[in-house]
Amino acid sequence: MKRNVLTLVIGAVLIVIFGLLLFTFQVRQTEVAVVTTFGKPTREITEPRAFPFFKWPWPIQKVYKLDNRIQDFEGKFTEGFTKDNNTLLTMVYVGWRITEPKTFFPKFGDGSIPAAEKMLDGMLESAQGVVVGNHPLSDFVNADPKELKFDAIETEIKDLVQSELQTNNCGLQIEFLG
Fold this sequence. Notes:
Order of helices and strands: HEEEEEEEEEHHHE
Shape: elongated
Radius of gyration: 24 Å
Strand content: 25-35%
Helix content: 25-40%
Strand order of the largest sheet: 3-2-5
Low-confidence stretches: none
Distance between the termini: 73 Å
Number of strands: 10
Structural class: alpha+beta
Number of helices: 4
């Protein structure tokens, strides 16, 4: 008789654990989550909490967790002409973060970071070409450090790319650019 009670208690505990795993999920501080219902994003969770979130089991709802930390991305070297027709080889690095998971998720194939970086690379390359073409070589290379305009050039590129990201409704934001 004692053995049957022990088996029933262990079975009940296992069923409760399985049920909790099936109907709950947690979000870490470094993550954001998108809950899809029948494949369509219905809910986003950006703030973690001490107790779990509830969801329906797999065929109805699925949880996709995305990294909320700053993503570092380094563009390719690009060759462009300055305002005074000198050739200049430049490269830009960028730190970006997901700000709107519900918008980001469907735009980039279920929240694919490489897909977002590929699009970001194209935007950076075009913005880089435009901004470098608007400045003379003396803004990039100069014997007088006060004549260098790196900060202004970086800000121009960042603003140009950020406005394009907002226009395309990508759900991400550039944190820094260099």
